[in-house]
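Now for today's protein:

——
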Amino acid sequence: MATRNTLTSPPGAVNNSSRAESFLRLNYPNNTGIMICYKDSLIVLSGGLDSTTLLHEYKERTALAVTFDYGSNHNGREIACARRQCAALGIEHIVIPLSFMGEYFKSSLLSGADAIPDGGYDTDNMKSTVVPFRNGIMLSVACGLAESRGLKHVLIANHGGDHAIYPDCRRPFVEAMDLAMREGTYINVSILAPYTDITKADIVARGSKLGVNYADTYSCYKGSERHCGTCGTCTERKEAFAVSGVPDPTSYE
């Protein structure tokens, strides 16, 4: 079965004719040359750096932001950031509990700060932090909520740096999930995943231009008040700011 190419690039970054045609149909439906913005999307918002950037980039189209509380070490601090970011933009925000994941799934991300490895953001070091099928579960819930609200798209901020470690962040998974969501809903809810093929440094550079307050985002997998600065996600966060040339406002231990 052929799959649709659904991973829409951000405005101004469409890179093939099918994406360009889709973007034009969606944003310039009357061929007037005047862009029309609709509140047609729901965003899966963790409160971390990537999804917060996506929230700001697609704020004109985002009707609802959803954060999932699945029992991770850092969920509480991420949720607080997500709430503040949405309040600043005037976007409705809800938190949906997925406590069964923390209770039944196996991952160091669900097992306390001491279980999180220090070191680089690489496959061998970070594999223990994988929460099995996390994005699949969240996207399924988000899809049902989107259809209930009459929203056509679900935004997710997976990016190129996640591919080696997290199977449910890769392009084939997102495309398969997108097809399932389209086929399983009356309004053909689809996934928008514009960061799939770019790096975290690219995201930071994009967010800096948008004026994102990165001091009010949270990444550390250990979940302490200040970022530990040594776990894989903290290392990746530091590298993203360094490579992008954007000053890092994060408070590290």
In short: Residues 1-6, 9-17, 19-29 have pLDDT under 50 and may be disordered. The chain has nine helices and five strands. The beta strands are 41-44, 62-69, 92-97, 153-155, 190-192.
